[in-house]
Amino acid sequence: MPQLNPSPWFFIMLISWMTFSLIIQPKVLSFITMNPPTSKKPEIPNTTPWTWPWT
C-alpha cells in the first residue's frame, strides 16, 4: 500500500514545516499591528429591564 510508505511524504512535510518555522513565521510576526490592544476597562452597558405588557 503506497499510503503507508512515509518515504516521500515525510520529507515533504519536514521541509514544509522547516520553511514555515524558519522563514515565513518570523517575517509575519515582525509586522506591526495597526490596532494594538489597549488596556482599557470594558464598559458595562446600562441595561433597563423590559416591561412586558401582559404582566
Brief digest:
This protein is mainly alpha-helical. It is built from 1 helix and no strands. The mean pLDDT is 82.
Quick tags:
55 residues; mainly alpha; 42% helix; hydrogen ion transport; transmembrane
What does this structure look like?
This protein has 55 residues and is mainly alpha-helical. The protein contains 1 helix and no strands.
Beta-strand fraction estimate: under 5%
Find the count of extended strands (DSSP E, 2+ residues).
0
> What is the averaged pLDDT score?
82
User: Shape from CA axes?
Assistant: elongated
Helix/strand/pairing category: mainly alpha
Number of helices: 1
Q: Low-confidence spans: pLDDT under 50, at least 5 residues?
A: none
Write the layout of secondary structure elements.
Blueprint lengths: L6 H23 L26
